[in-house]
Design brief:
elongated; mainly alpha; 0% strand
Length: 56
């Protein structure tokens, strides 16, 4: 329907909408939480791969 690609204008519109809904302080908390979640996920994947190699 939309072509499957998000360009800069679309991302800016989404950011403005999120800013209006959540406000600047809550948005920064959400970003921090998302970053920590991604970091923890990558760490868990790396640990899982290391365990898999160790058990071969």
């Amino acid at each position: 329907m939309f072509g499957g690609k998000l360009g800069v204008p679309e991302l800016l519109v989404l950011l403005v909408i999120a800013l209006l809904i959540f406000g600047p302080s809550k948005l920064s908390e959400l970003g921090k939480g998302l970053g920590e979640g991604i970091k923890n996920f990558k760490s868990a994947v790396k640990d899982g791969e290391a365990d898999a190699e160790k058990n071969k």
